Amino acid sequence: MQRPLRVLITGGTGFIGKRLARHLLDQPTLALEGEAPREIGKITLLDAFPADDLPDDPRLDVRIGEIDDSALLEELTREVDLVWHLAAVVSSAAEADFDLGMRVNLHGLLALLEVLRAQPKPARLVYASGFAVFGGPLPEVVVDDTLPTPVSSYGTQKAIGEMLVNDYSRRGFVDGRTLRLPTIAVRPGKPNKAASTFVSSIIREPLVGERAVCPVTPETPVYITSPRRVLDAMLHAMSLDGERLGQSRTIPLPGLTVTIAEMVAALESVAGPAARELIEWHADAEIQRIVASWPSRVEAPRAAELGFHADGDIESIIRAHVEDEGITLTGDQ
Question: Would I find NADP among this entry's keywords (predicted)?
Fold first, then answer.
């Protein structure tokens, strides 16, 4: 009988890491393609910041530390089976602090890959990337084999990360798979330093009666996915047999293309006109430039063939956020 699975989630106290940990703790077993279902044992969350809203479960171990600390990584990856690498410095922060972005986004990933390389059995690894690997002039529709053309430090670091995961997998050091994530909306919590943070803020804050600022024009299109679809994708990607992925371990995910105006209209449909009035429009040329450089129309047939799914519409995403966060709506719904 096989021992229980050992899991590591880097960036584990972020909202995706916490949702993933809660889900795993709620499951008696985890089924991986090509293997019999196995009990979930120890789950380690590694992050630079603590969290105070995690389950009280003896299987859960929260470690505060830096992602490029090789000695710590060696300890945490000993006999590890599954690794979700979510730790990252987000787009605007990586642009503002080049050294920090390189240390976390690139050297942190490389440190993790190197300690995993030393394990006797290749661990399954899910690496979170994004469509910021694209920039500048793009085709009207980005497809699976469109080559990355990053024009930001963050996008460059993620593009290099995708290639590293691919090569370490080719060499048999890890059994990796990269998820190229659309912009996630609606994120819970507070705004972060990502250029795309407003995509969640213009929905999240008005739903609870708070003002939000939109720095781009209403006609601006964005390519998004919901937290529910991200969690599904994280679990499904880990379950896939590496043989199905072949030589390319990068999976651009299906998402939903929607304009900011359509998002605001859906907000009004869910929460009434008073919520819409809480959005203030203050143009920011730099944010507009960055967002306009990202793909807004994507076709991801490979992901669909592998069993990944997109959200149906923006209103359902907003209603899912209301349900997940336990928000009581007031006003004209």
Answer: yes
Work out the burial of residue 52: count CB atoms within 10 Å of its CB; fewer than 13 is exposed, 13-18 middle, 19 or more buried.
exposed
CA 118 to chain centre: 26
Beta-strand pair 38-47/5-10: parallel
In degrees and rounded to multiples of 5, residue 273 shows phi and psi of -65, -25
Return d(Cα 71, Cα 91) in angstroms, integer: 27
CB 143 within 8 A of CB 180: no
286 C-beta neighbours (distance < 10 Å), count: 11
Q: In this structure, are residues 129 and 294 in contact, taking their beta carbons and an 8 Å threshold?
A: no
Encode pLDDT of 41-74 as tens digits: 999 999 999 988 899 999 999 999 999 999 999 9
168 is annotated as an active-site residue: no
What fold does the segment set 5-182+225-252 form as a domain?
Answer: Rossmann fold (3.40.50)
Specify the CATH architecture of the domain 197-223+256-295+311-325.
Alpha-Beta Complex (3.90)
Catalytic residue selected from 127, 154, 168, 223: 154
Domains 5-182+225-252 and 197-223+256-295+311-325 share a fold: no
Indicate the helix (H) or strand (E) that contains 286. Answer: helix 285-292
Spatial contact of 134 and 162, defined as CB atoms under 8 Å apart:
no
| Tokens describing residue 125 | 């690894």
Q: What confidence tens digit (pLDDT) does each residue in 198-245 have? A: 999 999 999 999 999 999 999 999 999 999 999 999 999 999 999 999
Cβ count near 34 (within 10 Å): 10
